[in-house]
Amino acid sequence: MSISVASSNAKQSTALFELEEAIDRTLLNVKECKTNRETAIKEIEKQECEVRKMIFETRKKVNLHLNKLEKKLLNELRSSSRTWKSKHMEIIQWLESTEEMIAKLSEQTLHMKQLSSDIQVFLGTRQVHQVITSKMESIKREIGDAKDYEMKLCINSMIKQLPNELETLGEIKVTDCNAKLDFRDPKIGQAQTRIISDTKLQVIKTFQTCRRSGPCGISSCVILPNGHLLTSQYTWDICLVEHSDTGEYIRDVPIPVFKKPYDIAVIDRNRIAVTYGEPEFLEIMNLKTCKIERRVELKDYCWGVCHENGRLYVRSGNSTMQVINLSGGKRKTFQIESNDVRDITTSRDRLYYTDNEKVYCCRLNGDKLWQFPLEGRSIEDLCSIAVDIDNNVYVLCDESNNLTYIHHNGRDSRLLLTEYDGLLEPHSLYYDREKNTMRICNRHGLVWLYNVV
Length: 453
Prior knowledge:
InterPro entries: 6-blade_b-propeller_TolB-like. The protein is of the alpha+beta class.
């Protein structure tokens, strides 16, 4: 076979497609590993802040305790000082009184000596002598009982030992474990890619999320980082609804603006992005506080939204995809193949979107990769789209009541579910890539949970 024959249609060959897949996977592996290590650095910085805070808190507690001990000891010192000073003051006051009395006796004796007769002096001397003798005995007794006090401090032995025994306030301990870095070999990845004819869905369970009769108007569903299911109801209930992974109702998440929520994208553990259809903006909401952190004006209807690597991809405008950098960079736009797109999703370096006729796959800058026709669809079909870890695509159509599986090459497909499998009025689809499970919600709030095998 000549090289010209062998190389015919090389640009559309499987070998070239697989080469592109291998290059893309390798680049993504490198980016994911880099992101993982950057996240590890941020985690170390977070841990450093937490340990620093613990050190400060420990020092604060020690200082507070020492302050209490110091205050208690100073109060005891003041009390002891007052007590023993009062003892001395009592003696001083008694001596001052005695001194005053003796001074008067001295004056009386001098007066008697100068003015009295010998008989009077004789008798007076005897009397004063008795008084002074008695007072001298009293002074001797008082002075003999007097005490001197010496206050000293006996430091607690533990405090004394503290400077010598306590060499550190604590110890920084570091444990290590193998990093959860998964560098998947492109060939291994291809070998493990699900074979389209073998792919099956196993029902794990079904549960009801709607708490009223009639359609709930569920337009979107996502899995939160805690494993809970969050649905948007495109109705005037004006709320998102959270359920556990087993179907138990958790709470309503109120929408601060009086608008019907259309689509949801999970940004991180606490934040989501919400679109409202005809209102020309999307909002970033904090799920913990239920408050809007940021509103992004788009100047056109805003339907499907998804998040990938710090960017929001939003279907807004005439055949236009808008790219919003959450870190505040310049907003970008690129043209897409259809103006009737309602649902979009991303997978690493690719963007997928669908109207009621085709499924489209392009790079995150808009460069077209492939498109796949959806045959036999109603013009009224509204389709939801999801992608697994191998870039295989799942398309759910509500009027046709079916789920189509499209191989990542964009050429092969098969029906996975139809109305004969009980699929009625399905409207929203979510693929959990970590657990390899799928959730389908219909208009009436019924949720099917499938295991993809």
